Amino acid sequence: MSTTLMDTTAPATTWPDWFAAQQQAALAEYENSPDPTRKDEAWRFANLKALDLSAFVPAEPVASEGRLINASTGLGDTSAKLILGNNTLLHREASALPAGVIFEPLETAAATHADLFKKYFMAQPVELGSRKFAALHKARVAGGAFLYVPANTSVSLPVEIFQWVEGANASVFPHTLIVCGENSSVTVVDYFKSADKLPAFACGVNDLHLDRGAKLTYIAVQDWSRETTAFHINSTVVDRDATCTALIANFGGAYIRGESLSRLVGEGSRSEMFSINPVEGTREIDQRTLQDHVAPRATSDLLYLNALDDKSRTIFAGLIKVEPGAAGTDAYQKVKNLILSDDADPNSMPGLEILNDEVRCSHGATNGPVSADELFYMEARGIAKDQARRLIVNGFFNNLLERLENETLRAHLETLVAARLAVA
Amino acid sequence: MSLKIENLHANIGVREILKGLNLEIPKGQVHAIMGKNGSGKSTLAKVMAGHPDYEVTGGSVSLDGLNLFDMEEPDQRSRAGLFVAFQYPMEIPGVTIANFIRAALQARLPEGEELDAVEYYGELYKKMDALKIDRSFTSRAVNEGFSGGEKKRCEVLQMAMLNPVYAVLDETDSGLDIDALRIVSEGVNAMRSPERGFLVITHYQRLLEYIVPDVVHVMVDGRIVMSGDKTLAHKLEAEGYDWVEKETLTNA
Ligand SMILES: Nc1ncnc2c1ncn2[C@@H]1O[C@H](COP(=O)(O)OP(=O)(O)O)[C@@H](O)[C@H]1O
Ligand SMILES: [Mg+2]
């Protein structure tokens, strides 16, 4: 096995020199880091064969630019839109943004807002196993999206980002960096899409930073082709009284490794970590999470839903860590596996590490089949078994979507989930 | 043309619940079954609907000559024109009433044909208004957190939307206060037609004041033991079931 990309020559980018130098170092780190083994706790149960990256090649410039731009449709009303393909900007609409909001490709932001970039770009430690791949990401990141919302600014309509991959075995390195200033608020929908049904490699990072009192709703719609190998490394930092709601919907991918770290660094902060994972065939979704309670009286609430059909696999390993100073913590972690096939393989490893006594924590994992009663009731109304099952799976996910406040957004995601299940 | 049940036997596990039940409901009529708790009324309803927990060990049910048991799946029976309003309707978290009924109607259309959404909502709202179900219920999950009465009204709403040829209503009156009972009964009465038959299961005569049956049957221990007109319901209400059991024993 080789976790080394076939071709590691640097693509043409417009990064400033100081960052290009960091990328050199990151490449060396990537090449010199050992491959994960199953002996690593962080890779327990993982299908390491899926980490063979030797077939992947650098992405060519996008060939069907117009088609991808046209296919970048999401919510009807948005306040801004950024479309990237194969690590390059394809299209940008940002005229409806309030004054002071910066919404640029990351490469541009590194040059024009170097101070912000330096402060926030990949500033969090990668603690959940994928340091090697985070280094690869840093070495090769290009394009990317940067959103900065200044203090006391509300972006009323959602901001959308589309990050495409095109071409057989192409590698992309999507990055979304969002910085929310004090008492600002914004909703972002980040789509990851394949131009065709071909194998590809994605190694993405997103960094979410919420200053005091900020409110961010971040939705990742991961819709890579079913042949794609992808890493998504997410980090969220929530300061005092700020609230982050992050939902990751994994619709695509043959092998998806997701790592989500949420650090509650300010008193009264809140982080909601949601995930929706319909899996079938031999697809595998491996998710590792950490709810790191640093500050007192913060809340974290994790809910991951997996619906497993055929011979699919899921791995969930989550840790709630309550640091000594985090009195009054409320932390919840729950993974629910809806089992649709006898051959499906769900693995759940919820965990707690509590270093303060004054906390309320709960964690748990459940496995269950589709309820025979629900199925019968639907059939008794004339709905055939397959369709009934699909509706029940759909309902299982909709229960989570109900937790989103924005009704337009919720309806949009319900539509996406229903469309996804229709082609399961 | 009738819903015809002949010598029906059914088990749950090894226990026989229906023990040779005979009943015929000519199209256009409303029949009622009364019987004590545990006599097997709900078992009959669920067996007809095709509930997987019950095993039919003998006999037949036909829908205008169509053998119900030739249709293995409950959804086939439903599409063939049978509707069962359940005594204890199930909850389906995350699936809204609107989507649920819509899927049931969509399932009745030929492959490739799409239900007209505007027409559908128009129809749905009309029927909800008639049953005094608040329109906001369309976006609530099926039966989740509903009161007993709301669940029953939702069953009748489904019946009204699906337009069955034969409808079995299992204790649809339980959990209803007098106003709701009137509304639900009006809903059912509005659907009475020469083209439709009803089997109304209840153990209170009260419902039959509102939905006046053509025939009343008494069920004891998995069989119909006596049939009569609506005065039979009054007699059962006044005198209980003991005399029925005595009388049938003497006759046996
Ligand atoms: N799931 C079940 N398992 C075992 N026994 C059952 C089950 N459901 C019903 N029964 C039994 O079958 C008999 C008939 O029940 P039911 O059809 O519900 O009666 P009714 O509706 O007339 O009150 C009762 O004795 C009841 O205890
Ligand atoms: Mg009953």
Q: How would you characterize the overall build of this protein?
A:
With 424 residues, chain A is an alpha/beta fold. Chain A is built from eight helices and 21 strands. In chain A, the strands form two sheets. In chain A, strands 1, 4, 5, 7, 8, 10, 12, 14, 16, 18 and 20 form an eleven-stranded mixed β-sheet that branches. Chain A folds into two domains: 17-265, no CATH class; 372-424, no CATH class. Chain A has helices at 17-32, 65-70, 106-112, 114-120, 131-140, 372-379, 385-401, 407-422; strands spanning 57-58, 80-85, 88-93, 102-105, 145-149, 159-165, 170-172, 175-180, 185-194, 200-210, 215-223, 229-238, 243-250, 255-264, 270-279, 284-293, 299-308, 313-322, 329-339, 345-354, 359-369. In chain A, α6 crosses α7 (385-401) and α7 runs antiparallel to α8. The radius of gyration of chain B is 18 Å and the shape is globular. In chain B, a hairpin with a 2-residue loop joins β4 and β5 (66-67). The interface between A and B is medium-sized, with 25 and 30 residues. Bound molecules: adenosine-5'-diphosphate and magnesium ion (MG).
Summarize the structure.
Chain A is 21% helix and 40% strand. With 424 residues, chain A is an alpha/beta fold. In chain A, strands 1, 4, 5, 7, 8, 10, 12, 14, 16, 18 and 20 form an eleven-stranded mixed beta sheet that branches. In chain A, strands 3-2-6-9-11-13-15-17-19-21 form a ten-stranded mixed beta sheet.
